[in-house]
Design a protein that fits this description.
Blueprint: H1 3-82, E1 85-89, H2 102-114, E2 123-128, E3 131-139, H3 145-148, H4 154-163, E4 177-186
Antiparallel strand pairs: 1-4, 2-3, 3-4
Helix pairs in contact: 1-4
């Protein structure tokens, strides 16, 4: 076979293999994203009712106590059950364990910019260095402002300081991106 024909056959083969790899990655991303969304929904679906019940039975300061203990526990249980690393991260972390890595920092900054556009989809999924990374923004809702807004009651401030002496997670307004659920799966 002449060199030119070998090069053409080799190029076609490489192109087909690359296309197959890309198609497989896209398929994997779709499957992994769907799985990540379920985990995020479980996290929120477990934490929100606990916070609502805490507010109802003991007020907002009690909800801070519940969030401080229950949110990390929920993340730990989900991580163990699913073989994903499950956590929450923020550029203005309340819990120092919620400090984002460089990758998460970049995505959180993108979420902050994108949140200014109402139709923005505030989630991100990508395969990076043999890991699947998924982030879903947590936007500030009305109830969040009691603990994360600008006007926090002294009682709630005391509860926050008791659990989070280095808290930076205040000053938010309705609709701001407060942080994100961050999930990682080793591939």
């Amino acid at each position: 076979m002449n060199k030119k024909l070998c090069f053409i056959v080799s190029s076609i083969f490489t192109s087909l293999v690359s296309s197959n790899v890309i198609a497989k990655d896209i398929e994997n991303i779709d499957v992994l994203t769907a799985e990540a969304k379920i985990i995020v929904k479980r996290f929120g679906g477990t934490l929100k009712p606990k916070l609502k019940q805490a507010i109802k039975t003991g007020g907002l300061a009690h909800a801070v106590n519940v969030c401080a203990t229950q949110a990390p526990q929920i993340a730990k249980v989900l991580s163990k059950e699913t073989s994903w690393e499950v956590k929450r991260v923020s550029l203005k972390a309340r819990n120092m364990l919620a400090q984002p890595d460089k990758f998460e920092q970049n995505i959180l900054k993108q979420f902050n910019e994108a949140s200014k556009i109402k139709s923005s989809k505030l989630e991100y999924a990508k395969i990076v260095n043999g890991e699947f990374r998924y982030l879903k923004a947590q936007k500030v809702e009305g109830v969040c402002l009691h603990c994360h807004g600008e006007n926090i009651s002294p009682e709630v401030q005391t509860a926050i300081k008791a659990h989070y002496p280095n808290d930076m997670a205040t000053g938010y307004a309705l609709g701001n991106v407060r942080g994100a659920f961050s999930l990682t799966k080793q591939l």
